[in-house]
Amino acid sequence: VHGGRIEATNTGVSSSLVIDGGQIISEKLGVSSHNATIKGGEIIGGVTGIQIYNGSINMSAGTVKGLTENGITIETNGNGTITGGVIEGDIYGIHNKNRLTIGSNDGNVISNNPTVTGGSYGLYITGSEQRLFDGMFEGQIDGIYGRVTEVPIGGVVSEGETTKNDIIYQTDFVAVYENWLRVGDQEFNTINA
């Protein structure tokens, strides 16, 4: 999908998808797919924005919204890599039931991209592997629920608070410790070589 608008009453797209522009709007599921590549555009589901089964989602830009449930749901046989964009859900921004990597482990931590917002939790983890290298997670209860299995070397998930439309959200975001170790003239934020 490179432009235009797809409107549906049940599911907007129910096959593999590549979108870099335009809109997909559905009363129920915006996208129900085995594989989805999101490079731009907007996906809005009346229930869930994107649901991934037995495949993967790769998202680098764009907007995904789930108006009554989740922005993105990754089922137990699915996986995902999200490096950018805006994801919003009424309950969870993302519900990860398997494996998900958010951001790039490139040594450059970006604390505000992607942005994942949920009414309860931004990121709700019940899956086995959750790698966070970048991102901002916002929820009225908390930004993240569940076990994060990997962050960048010298990194940490920090907490804060923000207000949007008079609603207070708890935030969790990926940040890097300041350099705290000096060896000769060099400074480090970790003891790992």
Summarize the structure.
With 193 residues, this protein is mainly β.
What would you note in describing this structure?
There is one protein chain. The protein has 193 residues and is mainly beta. The chain is built from no helices and 19 strands. The protein is globular, with a radius of gyration of 17 Å. The model has no long low-confidence stretch (mean pLDDT 92).
Which key features would you list for this structure?
mainly beta, single chain, 17-stranded mixed β-sheet, 0% helix, two-stranded antiparallel sheet, 193 residues
Q: What layout of secondary structure does this protein have?
A:
Layout: E1 5-8, E2 11-13, E3 17-26, E4 29-45, E5 48-66, E6 70-74, E7 79-82, E8 86-89, E9 92-96, E10 99-102, E11 115-118, E12 121-125, E13 129-132, E14 136-139, E15 142-145, E16 155-164, E17 167-176, E18 181-183, E19 186-188
Per DSSP, the total helix count is 0
Low-confidence stretches: none
Main structural class? mainly beta
Number of strands: 19
The CA-CA distance between the termini, in Å, is: 45 Å
Helix content: under 10%
Question: How would the global form be characterised?
Answer: globular
Instruction: Summarize the biggest pleated sheet.
Output: 17 strands, mixed
What's the order of the H and E elements? EEEEEEEEEEEEEEEEEEE
Structural Rg: 17 Å
Per DSSP, what share of the residues sits in E-state strands of 2 or more residues?
A: over 45%
Q: What number is the mean pLDDT?
A: 92
